[in-house]
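Module 6 notes. Inverse folding takes a fixed backbone as the condition and produces residue identities as the prediction. Think of it as a translation problem where the source language is geometry and the target language is the twenty amino acids. Below is one complete input and output pair. Work through it position by position during the lab.
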């Protein structure tokens, strides 16, 4: 019987890590990885591709491309795919759970403190410092992703710049542009010998989200059922990364269901930014405020289950056909688009986090420190920025 820990796919060579090493890595990243999806996928590439050699560059690109094409949180989907690469569904499942659990328990603990002590007034001060440092962290991550993924290819640079500009102008990530970028690269580099029907777009479900929402709103459901259905829609219908889900959550949580007021929702977003792991884990905090620990569990499970399924279902086809010239070109195009959107999102998030001269200086100082000291750990910078925020914010906002 073949040992799965030493035998990889045919022709791929031996696997250099055990399943539990991958799980422990994702657990650590989920507990200490600050900076949101842009930084998190950058850490995965740095640690798993460059430093440890566990994952190949092509496998990483496939995971990033799939995460951008499917709805749901990008960092979590990339983690799930990287777990799938050598250990299939078990690896995907355990890697995804390990990545999400640490930050989930953190936001639940913050939700408990928030309710017990009547709000977390220190949150704004911490976010003042951390938000600025995060801009520097994700700027460095975006730079590294760009140099490695785009290189000197003129077509990929054109795609990259187009998506970066669109993201900055619209302040959103437009899903069909990722698909279009892949098709353009495919047709330019490896055009098909004959045209055929179907293709990847046939696998994407055509969902009328507003109509589905209207139908669901007519049902008389318990509170937990309503929470589950709403957050399942958030996980299944919202494309983009990080804060892209925030407008959708605001519309449902504050405007439609009136589960939270404006201040509570803003605090929920702040919690997502000052805790490590995926930004979308704010759903756990919201769920806790609405219906306690059961609400937090239902909200998190409903949000992440669709992105898990959207990753493991098409993953075998990515693995099987991923080395074909047309697929390689398609993935390169989608990757360039993804990195362009990631770079654009740095500017979008910076407009919200850099609000004065001190925050601008903190962001620049973060970039300079990470550029000069390559081994400097991001949590150290985040902790320092949080302390600076706690000191400066009360002085500047009396």
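Target side of the pair, the amino acids:
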């Amino acid at each position: 019987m073949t040992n799965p820990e030493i035998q990889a796919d045919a022709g791929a060579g031996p696997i250099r890590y055990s399943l539990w090493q991958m799980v422990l890595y994702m657990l650590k990243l989920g507990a200490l990885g600050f900076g949101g999806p842009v930084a998190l996928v950058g850490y995965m590439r740095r640690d798993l591709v460059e430093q440890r050699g566990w994952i190949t560059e092509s496998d990483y690109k496939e995971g990033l491309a799939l995460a951008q094409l499917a709805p749901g949180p990008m960092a979590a989907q990339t983690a799930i795919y990287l777990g799938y690469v050598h250990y299939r569904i078990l690896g995907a499942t355990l890697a995804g759970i390990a990545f999400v659990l640490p930050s989930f328990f953190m936001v639940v603990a913050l939700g408990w403190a928030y309710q017990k002590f009547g709000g977390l007034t220190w949150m704004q001060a911490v976010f003042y410092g951390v938000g600025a440092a995060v801009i520097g962290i994700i700027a460095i991550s975006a730079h590294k992703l760009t140099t490695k993924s785009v290189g000197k290819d003129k077509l990929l640079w054109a795609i990259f710049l187009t998506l970066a500009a669109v993201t900055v102008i619209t302040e959103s990530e437009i899903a069909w542009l990722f698909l279009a970028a892949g098709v353009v690269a495919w047709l330019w580099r490896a055009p098909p010998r004959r045209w055929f029907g179907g293709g990847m777009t046939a696998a994407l479900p055509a969902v009328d989200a507003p109509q589905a929402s209207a139908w669901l709103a007519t049902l008389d459901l318990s509170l937990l059922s309503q929470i589950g259905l709403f957050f399942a829609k958030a996980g299944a219908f919202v494309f983009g990364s990080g804060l892209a889900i925030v407008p959708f959550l605001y519309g449902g949580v504050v405007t439609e269901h009136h589960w939270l007021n404006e201040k509570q929702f803003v605090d929920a977003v702040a919690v997502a930014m000052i805790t490590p792991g995926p930004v979308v884990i704010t759903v756990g905090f919201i769920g806790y405020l609405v219906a306690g620990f059961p609400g937090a569990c239902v909200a998190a499970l409903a949000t992440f289950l669709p992105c898990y399924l959207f990753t493991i279902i098409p993953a075998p086809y990515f693995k099987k056909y991923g080395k074909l010239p047309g697929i390689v070109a398609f993935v390169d195009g989608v990757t360039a688009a993804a990195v362009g959107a990631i770079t654009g999102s740095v500017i979008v998030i910076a407009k919200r986090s850099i609000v004065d001269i001190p925050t601008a200086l903190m962001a620049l100082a973060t970039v300079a420190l990470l550029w000069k000291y390559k081994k400097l750990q991001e949590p150290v910078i985040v902790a320092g920025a949080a302390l600076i925020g706690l000191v400066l914010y009360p002085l500047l906002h009396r």
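Reference fact for the lab report: Residues 74-116 form the longest helix (43 residues).
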